[in-house]
Amino acid sequence: xxxxxxxxxxxxxxxxxxxxxxxxxxxxxxxxxxxxxxxxxxxxxxxxxxxxxxxxxxxxxxxxxxxxxxxxxxxxxxxxxxxxxxxxxxxxxxxxxxxxxxxxxxxxxxxxxxxxxxxxxxxxxxxxxxxxxxxxxxxxxxxxxxxxxxxxxxxxxxxxxxxxxxxxxxxxxxxxxxxxxxxxxxxxxxxxxxxxxxxxxxxxxxxxxxxxxxxxxxxxxxxxxxxxxxxxxxxxxxxxxxxxxxxxxxxxxxxxxxxxxxxx
Length: 264
What we know:
By secondary structure, this protein is an alpha/beta fold. 23% of the residues lie in helices and 24% in strands. Strands 1, 2, 3, 10, 11 and 12 form a 6-stranded mixed sheet that branches. The chain is globular.
């Protein structure tokens, strides 16, 4: 079984570069399961229902997010669907360790046309991030409910140590632990001893002539003066960052992970 995970899609530049490469990647690598982190796809801040629909039309099975999930209010109602629904809105995830009563859901368990079951989990880190529940214990809680063998986790977190620790904690219990949020790809893609594919950060699918997606001059002005200002998504040098994971569908154990970085 082949899984393609696309890192944080940032703004229009990110959407365009993903659209440019996605169909070819799916065909070339016989991708069975496609997951996209789309939390910054709406101008760099949040996601809208129409953009979620665009990703689903591209072939995404599940969309993961992170701390910017509530930046566009129109996503609230789109994600408020019954727990047992397979509607598209149910397949847009927010971090599972948010407060009880928060709109939406933090994991999705589904089945591919082949009959292969799978699950996707979304968690947020706590170090240097806004307050949320313990991602380690929340992962334990979710795994106790999931029957699928193929399980992919998007851990949206700031520090490398927290993501790395979660990878080791879940080694052998999930197919992949994939870090997002910092927008900078890391060079540590590997399969851990227990059969869990891991990378600290997949990286951003967006404009790399920027400061993590934002126009460089706007960020420099913030650092140099300390004055607030409106951030705008950059557009230069877009690249698509993703990982391709090979796994055994019957056991859920990964046997390969490859990082991809594709330009125009």
